[in-house]
Amino acid sequence: MKKDSVAKSKELTNDIKTILEKYELVNVNKHDFGVYQLSLNRPKVLNALNDELMRQLSDVITLLQNHDARCFVLTGSQKAFAAGGDISEMSGKSYAQVTEEQYVTSIWSKLEQRHIPIVAAVNGLALGGGCELAMLCDIIVAGYSATFGLPEAGLGIIPGAGGTQRLIRAVGKAKAMDVILSGKTLTAIEAERSGLISRVIDDDKVLAEALYIASNIAKRSKPVISMAKKVVDYAHESSLKNGMQYEQQNFYATFALEDQKEGMQAFLERRKPNWQDK
Known about the structure:
Elements: E1 9-10, H1 14-20, E2 26-31, E3 35-40, H2 51-65, E4 71-75, E5 80-82, H3 87-90, H4 95-101, H5 105-112, E6 118-122, E7 125-127, H6 129-136, E8 139-143, E9 147-149, H7 163-171, H8 173-182, E10 186-187, H9 188-194, E11 199-201, H10 206-218, H11 222-235, H12 240-254, H13 258-268
Parallel strand pairs: 3-4, 4-6, 5-7, 6-8, 7-9, 8-11
Antiparallel strand pairs: 1-2, 2-3, 9-10
Helix pairs in contact: 2-5, 7-8, 11-12
């Protein structure tokens, strides 16, 4: 790892710092290159995901991506990225309540609509909603201690935040069925081999690796990264034919960007590009 490429910690500006103080369940640290580290902060319940935590996470991401964020790193603790949904919150809800509230869907859908990439830095447990949250991110880096799973069927429910849809697209039907129906968990090594996660690394290096990846993303043209993310995401929802057409449209669109001209000219002149983000 090139140390000079890692996003180093920086001070938040006073105005942003003041706004973020009300979000107690998400700790925010700013790093170089517009990288923001977002740390889930419910340690007593292993970062179990309740409505308020997810609402705060959504609000923070929306605020920062409209400010100067170029990439996020989402992490938890050494024991747990997030151990699952908050069962104490869910247990008393009725069919009528979850339907009327659009429980989970109303908040999580906002996270799906973001245009800034998220790198998940996972240690320990990523189960249920925690696994779904990791899969909602764009890249997952995990420590050897990490465990992934969707144990909802053992609680009398099914995954409800994208687990059944994203897992099968990542690991295939057979393994997804095994995880969802039988409660099988995946080690970090198994998850990497199955295509669920990007990199496995020593537990104490996970955050640094995630910040390194995020800094490399953040140093590229912001609109180009946004377009690339959008096209890859679209591949999950379309046929190959439609996906190819969508890729072609966005590929052509990059030639309308000043950054395309700058990037290619910088390559020809053997220098680093000076992105204008337009």
